[in-house]
């Protein structure tokens, strides 16, 4: 679904790398199921975050091996050196590889522990913590929620495509989506929204500011807990902007879909809900209330 031209390469790479990792000193004691999971996590994160239709096989292998190393706290340069040595030894013994893995590893430069590598490992580790939290709600020991907020902020800047891919997966799982919304502040959620639609971030921020006090006063919604209403607003917004294939969001459709989502989530009659909102806004405008967005 992500890359039709590289499916055979991925299949062959999987066939080739599995027995090598099973023999390698640093990975031979890792359970096979865990290694399989990490191989696939790395592959899917790479191909889903690559905007090009044709996958860079060198980068794919490089990213995959880095993901396996960081997931198991293995020093990447040493891991890569041992892997290259092992494969060269197997080639000398007459071992045939289905993929072009030996040739690709010849092209990978084995890095020293420089700043660039440390940053790459940090990003991979941060992405793993973020992904694990979204899926399970569990954070590493002595790891605060504020640290997770900071990690997410940095990941949005440094690894936007990977964050976007993880958020897309969240949208298919209600619990994970709610966890994302409850954990992160509006400022982080706005940055996540910006990954889908950069031009509408300010409108979404202003709409959120405008609609919140109205829903707090409205007969049908004023008794709904604030945290629940916030979650439903953000769920509706993220569903809308992520499902819209256009880069420029239709603001009219966005508001309509958002209010419908809030109404249906709380079993509120939508036409009546909409009439009451319009009446409330018209009343506030007559009183001189200024709105940040074009909601009225």
Give me some keywords for this one.
elongated, 14 helices, 296 residues, 0% strand, 2 domains, mainly alpha, 71% helix
Query: What is the string of helix and strand elements?
Result: HHHHHHHHHHHHHH
Cα separation of the termini: 42 Å
Helix content: over 70%
Tell me the fraction of residues in β-strands, as a range.
under 5%
- CA radius of gyration is 24 Å
Biggest β-sheet strands, sense, barrel = none
Shape: elongated
Q: Which class best fits the helix and strand makeup?
A: mainly alpha
- Tell me the number of helical segments per DSSP (H or I, 4 or more residues long): 14
Which SSEs are present, and which pair or pack?
Elements: H1 7-23, H2 32-49, H3 57-71, H4 76-92, H5 101-107, H6 115-136, H7 145-158, H8 160-170, H9 174-183, H10 186-196, H11 201-217, H12 226-243, H13 251-265, H14 270-286
Helix pairs in contact: 1-2, 2-3, 2-8, 3-5, 3-6, 6-7, 6-8, 7-8, 7-10, 9-12, 10-11, 11-12, 12-13
Describe this structure in words.
There is one protein chain. This protein is mainly alpha-helical. The protein has two domains: 167 residues, no CATH class; 102 residues. The chain is built from 14 helices and no strands. Helix 12 packs across helix 13. The chain starts with 6 loop residues before the first helix and ends in a 10-residue tail after the last helix. The model has no long low-confidence stretch (mean pLDDT 83).
């Amino acid at each position: 679904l992500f890359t039709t031209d590289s499916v055979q390469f991925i299949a062959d790479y999987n066939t080739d790398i599995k027995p090598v990792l099973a023999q390698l000193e640093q990975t031979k004691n890792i359970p096979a199921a865990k290694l399989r999971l990490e191989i696939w996590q790395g592959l899917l994160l790479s191909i889903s975050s690559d905007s090009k239709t044709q996958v860079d096989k060198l980068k794919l292998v490089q990213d995959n091996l880095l993901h396996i190393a960081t997931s198991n706290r293995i020093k990447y340069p040493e891991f890569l050196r041992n892997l290259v040595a092992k494969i060269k030894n197997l080639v000398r013994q007459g071992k045939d590889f289905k993929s072009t893995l030996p040739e690709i590893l010849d092209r990978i430069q084995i890095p020293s522990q420089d700043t660039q590598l440390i940053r790459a490992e940090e990003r991979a580790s941060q992405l793993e913590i973020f992904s694990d939290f979204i899926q399970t709600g569990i954070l590493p020991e002595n790891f605060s929620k504020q640290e997770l907020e900071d990690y997410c902020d940095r990941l949005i800047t440094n690894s936007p495509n990977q964050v976007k891919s993880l958020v897309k997966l969240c949208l298919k799982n209600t619990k994970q989506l709610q966890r994302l919304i409850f954990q992160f502040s509006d400022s982080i959620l706005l940055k996540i929204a910006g990954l889908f639609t950069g031009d509408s971030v300010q409108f979404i921020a202003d709409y959120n500011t405008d609609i919140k006090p109205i829903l707090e006063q409205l007969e049908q919604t004023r008794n709904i807990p604030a945290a629940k209403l916030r979650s439903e607003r953000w769920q509706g917004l993220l569903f809308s902007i992520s499902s819209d294939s256009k880069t420029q969001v239709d603001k009219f459709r966005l508001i309509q879909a958002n209010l419908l989502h809030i109404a249906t989530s709380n079993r509120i009659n939508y036409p009546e809900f909409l009439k009451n909102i319009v009446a409330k806004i018209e009343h506030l405008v007559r009183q001189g209330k200024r709105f940040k967005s074009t909601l009225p």
